[in-house]
Amino acid sequence: MSRSSGENHQAQLYNPSSRMACIFLHQKLLAREQKAFSNTRNSINFGAMMYRLTATFIFLTIAWPSSGIDISEDVFAGAPHFVIKTKQATYFLDKEGGGLSRMIDEYGNDWIAYKSDPWNLYPESAASSYRGLPNLVFRSDDNGAGHPGHKVCYSFQVDQSTILTISKNGKWQWRWRFYERYATLTIEKTDPESKYWFLYEGPIAGEFRPKFQYWGTNLGGPRREIIDYYKGDKIFANWHWIYFGDMRVKQILFVAMENPDRQIDSLGFLGNSSQGIQAEDGMVVFGFGRQSDAQPQMTDPHNTFYFGFIKMRVKNQNSHENVVKRIDKLLKE
Predict the structure, then answer these.
(1) Residues 6+ apart with CB under 8 A from 135
(2) What are the tens digits of pLDDT across the range 117-146?
(3) Do 221 and 243 meet the contact criterion of CB atoms below 8 Å apart?
(4) What is d(CA 42, CA 21) in angstroms, rounded to the nearest whole number?
(5) What rounded mean pLDDT belongs to the chain?
(6) How far apart are the first and last CA of the chain?
(7) What are the extents of the domains in the chain?
(8) For the residues of 49-116, what is the DSSP string, one character each?
(9) Rg (CA), the chain
(10) May I ask the CATH class of domain 68-332?
(11) pTM value?
Protein backbone atom coordinates (compact mmCIF):
# COMPACT_ATOMS: atom_id res chain seq x y z
CA MET A 1 0.00 0.00 0.00
CA SER A 2 1.41 3.38 -0.98
CA ARG A 3 1.86 6.06 1.66
CA SER A 4 0.37 9.53 1.46
CA SER A 5 2.74 12.42 0.78
CA GLY A 6 2.46 13.43 4.43
CA GLU A 7 3.38 9.93 5.59
CA ASN A 8 6.31 9.83 3.18
CA HIS A 9 7.54 13.18 4.48
CA GLN A 10 7.23 12.01 8.08
CA ALA A 11 9.09 8.80 7.31
CA GLN A 12 11.86 10.77 5.63
CA LEU A 13 12.03 13.27 8.47
CA TYR A 14 12.61 10.62 11.10
CA ASN A 15 14.63 8.17 9.03
CA PRO A 16 17.94 7.84 10.93
CA SER A 17 19.78 7.03 7.72
CA SER A 18 18.83 10.34 6.09
CA ARG A 19 20.94 13.47 6.52
CA MET A 20 19.16 14.68 9.64
CA ALA A 21 20.51 16.07 12.87
CA CYS A 22 19.17 16.90 16.29
CA ILE A 23 19.88 20.30 17.80
CA PHE A 24 20.22 19.85 21.52
CA LEU A 25 21.93 23.06 22.49
CA HIS A 26 20.06 26.33 22.12
CA GLN A 27 22.39 29.31 22.24
CA LYS A 28 20.00 31.74 23.92
CA LEU A 29 19.14 29.23 26.61
CA LEU A 30 22.81 28.49 27.12
CA ALA A 31 23.63 32.19 27.43
CA ARG A 32 20.83 32.70 29.95
CA GLU A 33 21.94 29.76 32.06
CA GLN A 34 25.60 30.80 31.91
CA LYS A 35 24.66 34.31 33.03
CA ALA A 36 22.85 32.83 36.00
CA PHE A 37 25.85 30.64 36.70
CA SER A 38 28.28 33.57 36.61
CA ASN A 39 27.17 34.54 40.11
CA THR A 40 28.48 31.32 41.57
CA ARG A 41 31.45 29.02 41.19
CA ASN A 42 29.69 26.01 42.57
CA SER A 43 30.35 23.15 40.15
CA ILE A 44 27.28 21.34 41.43
CA ASN A 45 25.15 24.29 40.34
CA PHE A 46 26.76 24.17 36.91
CA GLY A 47 25.95 20.48 36.69
CA ALA A 48 22.36 21.31 37.57
CA MET A 49 22.37 23.98 34.88
CA MET A 50 23.53 21.45 32.28
CA TYR A 51 20.81 19.06 33.41
CA ARG A 52 18.16 21.76 33.03
CA LEU A 53 19.63 22.74 29.71
CA THR A 54 19.33 19.26 28.27
CA ALA A 55 16.12 18.35 30.08
CA THR A 56 14.08 21.43 29.16
CA PHE A 57 15.20 22.05 25.61
CA ILE A 58 12.65 21.25 22.92
CA PHE A 59 14.37 18.97 20.45
CA LEU A 60 14.14 20.04 16.84
CA THR A 61 14.92 17.73 13.93
CA ILE A 62 15.98 19.47 10.77
CA ALA A 63 17.56 18.65 7.43
CA TRP A 64 20.86 20.52 7.22
CA PRO A 65 22.07 21.38 3.74
CA SER A 66 25.08 19.39 2.63
CA SER A 67 28.36 21.13 3.43
CA GLY A 68 30.82 18.35 2.69
CA ILE A 69 31.16 17.79 6.45
CA ASP A 70 29.75 14.69 8.12
CA ILE A 71 29.54 14.43 11.92
CA SER A 72 28.65 11.11 13.53
CA GLU A 73 29.19 9.48 16.92
CA ASP A 74 31.33 6.52 17.94
CA VAL A 75 33.38 5.12 20.81
CA PHE A 76 37.17 5.19 20.66
CA ALA A 77 39.62 4.21 23.42
CA GLY A 78 36.63 3.58 25.67
CA ALA A 79 35.31 7.14 25.37
CA PRO A 80 32.38 8.64 23.42
CA HIS A 81 33.54 10.63 20.43
CA PHE A 82 32.31 12.79 17.62
CA VAL A 83 33.77 11.63 14.30
CA ILE A 84 34.07 14.47 11.80
CA LYS A 85 34.72 13.53 8.18
CA THR A 86 35.80 16.18 5.70
CA LYS A 87 37.25 16.15 2.21
CA GLN A 88 40.84 16.05 3.43
CA ALA A 89 40.72 14.62 6.96
CA THR A 90 38.87 12.62 9.59
CA TYR A 91 38.91 13.98 13.15
CA PHE A 92 38.00 12.12 16.35
CA LEU A 93 36.86 14.50 19.10
CA ASP A 94 36.64 13.12 22.65
CA LYS A 95 33.38 14.53 24.05
CA GLU A 96 34.43 14.55 27.71
CA GLY A 97 38.08 15.31 27.08
CA GLY A 98 37.27 18.16 24.75
CA GLY A 99 40.25 17.42 22.49
CA LEU A 100 41.19 15.47 19.38
CA SER A 101 42.41 11.91 19.82
CA ARG A 102 42.86 11.16 16.11
CA MET A 103 43.54 13.26 13.03
CA ILE A 104 43.70 11.08 9.93
CA ASP A 105 44.80 12.32 6.52
CA GLU A 106 43.50 11.05 3.19
CA TYR A 107 46.23 8.38 3.07
CA GLY A 108 45.14 6.89 6.41
CA ASN A 109 47.99 8.33 8.50
CA ASP A 110 46.93 9.24 12.04
CA TRP A 111 48.88 12.32 13.11
CA ILE A 112 47.74 12.07 16.75
CA ALA A 113 47.16 8.34 17.37
CA TYR A 114 46.11 8.72 21.01
CA LYS A 115 46.06 5.62 23.22
CA SER A 116 44.95 5.38 26.84
CA ASP A 117 47.70 2.98 27.95
CA PRO A 118 50.25 3.55 29.34
CA TRP A 119 48.60 6.43 31.16
CA ASN A 120 50.60 9.46 32.29
CA LEU A 121 54.04 7.85 32.51
CA TYR A 122 57.14 9.79 31.46
CA PRO A 123 58.41 9.24 28.85
CA GLU A 124 56.42 6.08 28.01
CA SER A 125 53.18 7.97 27.41
CA ALA A 126 54.74 9.85 24.50
CA ALA A 127 53.44 6.83 22.58
CA SER A 128 49.98 6.98 24.14
CA SER A 129 48.15 9.25 26.59
CA TYR A 130 50.28 12.40 26.22
CA ARG A 131 49.09 12.75 22.65
CA GLY A 132 46.32 15.08 21.57
CA LEU A 133 45.28 18.49 20.29
CA PRO A 134 44.93 21.15 21.74
CA ASN A 135 45.58 19.84 25.30
CA LEU A 136 44.63 23.31 26.48
CA VAL A 137 44.51 23.30 30.28
CA PHE A 138 47.34 22.11 32.53
CA ARG A 139 48.14 22.50 36.23
CA SER A 140 44.82 23.93 37.42
CA ASP A 141 41.45 22.76 38.73
CA ASP A 142 40.50 22.01 35.11
CA ASN A 143 43.65 20.02 34.34
CA GLY A 144 43.01 17.93 31.24
CA ALA A 145 40.36 20.13 29.64
CA GLY A 146 40.97 19.96 25.90
CA HIS A 147 42.93 16.71 26.23
CA PRO A 148 41.58 13.32 25.08
CA GLY A 149 41.18 10.74 27.80
CA HIS A 150 40.09 13.16 30.50
CA LYS A 151 36.52 13.57 31.73
CA VAL A 152 36.22 17.26 32.54
CA CYS A 153 34.15 18.61 29.62
CA TYR A 154 30.82 18.50 27.85
CA SER A 155 30.76 18.66 24.03
CA PHE A 156 27.66 19.37 21.93
CA GLN A 157 27.01 19.40 18.20
CA VAL A 158 25.62 22.84 17.36
CA ASP A 159 25.08 22.50 13.60
CA GLN A 160 26.32 20.61 10.56
CA SER A 161 29.95 21.66 11.06
CA THR A 162 30.26 23.09 14.59
CA ILE A 163 30.85 21.56 18.02
CA LEU A 164 30.86 23.47 21.30
CA THR A 165 32.95 22.31 24.27
CA ILE A 166 32.42 23.57 27.84
CA SER A 167 34.36 22.53 30.93
CA LYS A 168 32.14 20.88 33.53
CA ASN A 169 32.62 23.70 36.02
CA GLY A 170 31.81 26.31 33.39
CA LYS A 171 35.11 28.19 33.49
CA TRP A 172 36.26 27.29 29.97
CA GLN A 173 34.52 27.26 26.61
CA TRP A 174 35.72 26.83 23.03
CA ARG A 175 34.10 26.23 19.66
CA TRP A 176 35.22 23.85 16.91
CA ARG A 177 34.39 24.63 13.27
CA PHE A 178 35.20 22.13 10.55
CA TYR A 179 35.69 22.97 6.89
CA GLU A 180 36.65 20.89 3.87
CA ARG A 181 40.33 21.90 3.96
CA TYR A 182 40.97 22.78 7.60
CA ALA A 183 39.42 23.30 11.03
CA THR A 184 39.41 26.08 13.61
CA LEU A 185 39.18 26.26 17.37
CA THR A 186 38.01 29.53 18.90
CA ILE A 187 38.45 30.23 22.59
CA GLU A 188 35.27 31.83 23.95
CA LYS A 189 35.78 31.73 27.70
CA THR A 190 38.77 31.19 29.99
CA ASP A 191 39.39 30.93 33.70
CA PRO A 192 40.93 34.32 34.58
CA GLU A 193 42.99 32.61 37.28
CA SER A 194 44.62 30.13 34.88
CA LYS A 195 46.77 30.28 31.76
CA TYR A 196 46.61 27.89 28.81
CA TRP A 197 48.53 26.75 25.78
CA PHE A 198 47.70 25.19 22.40
CA LEU A 199 49.59 21.96 21.77
CA TYR A 200 50.03 19.49 18.97
CA GLU A 201 51.43 16.25 20.37
CA GLY A 202 51.53 13.25 18.10
CA PRO A 203 53.57 11.31 15.52
CA ILE A 204 54.20 13.21 12.30
CA ALA A 205 52.47 11.35 9.45
CA GLY A 206 51.56 8.59 11.91
CA GLU A 207 55.07 7.39 12.79
CA PHE A 208 57.91 8.49 15.06
CA ARG A 209 60.90 8.71 12.74
CA PRO A 210 62.60 12.07 13.31
CA LYS A 211 65.42 11.49 10.82
CA PHE A 212 62.87 11.49 7.98
CA GLN A 213 60.85 14.43 9.26
CA TYR A 214 60.99 18.19 8.92
CA TRP A 215 59.21 21.33 10.00
CA GLY A 216 58.96 24.99 9.14
CA THR A 217 57.49 28.21 10.47
CA ASN A 218 56.72 31.75 9.38
CA LEU A 219 60.38 32.46 10.22
CA GLY A 220 61.72 29.95 7.69
CA GLY A 221 61.98 26.38 6.51
CA PRO A 222 62.12 23.56 5.84
CA ARG A 223 64.20 22.73 8.91
CA ARG A 224 65.50 19.28 9.77
CA GLU A 225 67.02 19.74 13.22
CA ILE A 226 66.26 16.76 15.44
CA ILE A 227 65.58 18.18 18.90
CA ASP A 228 65.77 15.49 21.58
CA TYR A 229 63.23 16.56 24.20
CA TYR A 230 64.12 13.72 26.58
CA LYS A 231 67.77 14.83 26.61
CA GLY A 232 66.69 18.36 27.50
CA ASP A 233 66.88 19.84 24.00
CA LYS A 234 64.09 22.22 22.96
CA ILE A 235 63.73 25.11 20.56
CA PHE A 236 62.06 28.26 21.88
CA ALA A 237 60.87 31.09 19.65
CA ASN A 238 57.82 33.17 18.86
CA TRP A 239 55.95 31.78 15.86
CA HIS A 240 52.76 32.73 14.05
CA TRP A 241 52.37 29.31 12.47
CA ILE A 242 54.19 26.03 11.99
CA TYR A 243 54.01 22.97 9.74
CA PHE A 244 55.26 19.40 10.01
CA GLY A 245 56.06 16.84 7.34
CA ASP A 246 57.69 13.53 6.52
CA MET A 247 59.90 13.16 3.44
CA ARG A 248 58.13 9.90 2.54
CA VAL A 249 54.60 11.34 2.70
CA LYS A 250 53.06 13.91 0.37
CA GLN A 251 51.26 15.71 3.17
CA ILE A 252 51.99 18.36 5.77
CA LEU A 253 50.09 19.40 8.87
CA PHE A 254 49.92 23.10 9.70
CA VAL A 255 48.92 24.77 12.97
CA ALA A 256 48.41 28.55 13.07
CA MET A 257 47.17 31.39 15.24
CA GLU A 258 44.81 33.93 13.72
CA ASN A 259 46.47 36.81 15.56
CA PRO A 260 50.16 36.55 16.48
CA ASP A 261 51.15 37.20 20.08
CA ARG A 262 54.40 37.72 21.97
CA GLN A 263 54.38 34.49 23.95
CA ILE A 264 57.17 31.93 23.80
CA ASP A 265 56.48 28.80 21.75
CA SER A 266 58.43 25.54 21.89
CA LEU A 267 59.27 22.42 19.89
CA GLY A 268 60.98 19.08 20.48
CA PHE A 269 60.81 15.34 19.71
CA LEU A 270 60.01 13.10 22.69
CA GLY A 271 60.73 9.38 22.46
CA ASN A 272 58.90 6.93 24.69
CA SER A 273 62.05 5.60 26.39
CA SER A 274 65.42 6.74 27.69
CA GLN A 275 66.74 6.26 24.15
CA GLY A 276 65.23 9.62 23.29
CA ILE A 277 64.93 10.22 19.57
CA GLN A 278 66.23 6.68 18.97
CA ALA A 279 63.20 5.23 20.76
CA GLU A 280 60.81 2.97 18.88
CA ASP A 281 57.88 5.33 19.33
CA GLY A 282 57.16 8.86 20.47
CA MET A 283 55.76 12.17 19.34
CA VAL A 284 56.55 15.73 18.41
CA VAL A 285 55.92 18.17 21.26
CA PHE A 286 54.83 21.54 19.89
CA GLY A 287 53.16 24.31 21.84
CA PHE A 288 51.95 27.83 21.28
CA GLY A 289 52.45 29.62 24.58
CA ARG A 290 54.59 26.88 26.13
CA GLN A 291 57.62 28.11 28.03
CA SER A 292 60.37 26.02 29.60
CA ASP A 293 59.43 23.68 32.44
CA ALA A 294 56.05 23.11 30.74
CA GLN A 295 54.51 26.42 31.77
CA PRO A 296 51.38 27.63 29.91
CA GLN A 297 51.51 31.34 29.06
CA MET A 298 48.40 32.37 27.12
CA THR A 299 45.51 34.32 28.63
CA ASP A 300 43.64 35.75 25.61
CA PRO A 301 39.96 34.69 25.99
CA HIS A 302 39.25 35.11 22.26
CA ASN A 303 42.05 33.31 20.43
CA THR A 304 41.34 31.42 17.20
CA PHE A 305 43.61 28.61 16.00
CA TYR A 306 43.71 26.96 12.56
CA PHE A 307 44.92 23.47 11.71
CA GLY A 308 44.70 21.13 8.75
CA PHE A 309 46.52 19.29 5.99
CA ILE A 310 48.13 20.55 2.80
CA LYS A 311 48.85 17.94 0.14
CA MET A 312 52.50 18.58 -0.67
CA ARG A 313 56.10 17.92 0.35
CA VAL A 314 58.30 20.80 1.40
CA LYS A 315 61.68 20.03 -0.14
CA ASN A 316 63.34 23.42 -0.39
CA GLN A 317 62.95 27.18 -0.01
CA ASN A 318 60.68 27.43 -3.05
CA SER A 319 58.17 24.93 -1.73
CA HIS A 320 58.37 26.58 1.69
CA GLU A 321 57.38 29.88 0.08
CA ASN A 322 54.39 28.08 -1.43
CA VAL A 323 53.33 27.09 2.10
CA VAL A 324 53.79 30.68 3.27
CA LYS A 325 51.42 31.95 0.57
CA ARG A 326 48.78 29.31 1.28
CA ILE A 327 48.74 29.79 5.05
CA ASP A 328 48.82 33.59 4.81
CA LYS A 329 45.90 33.48 2.36
CA LEU A 330 43.92 31.22 4.68
CA LEU A 331 44.45 33.48 7.67
CA LYS A 332 43.21 36.47 5.65
CA GLU A 333 39.97 34.80 4.50
Answers:
(1) 99, 146, 147, 197, 199, 201
(2) 999 999 999 999 999 999 999 988 899 999
(3) yes
(4) 33
(5) 86
(6) 53
(7) 1-63, 68-332
(8) HHHHHHHHPPPEEEEPPP-S-EEEEEEETTEEEEEEE-SSEEEEEETTT-SEEEEEETTS-BSS----
(9) 21
(10) mainly beta
(11) 0.83
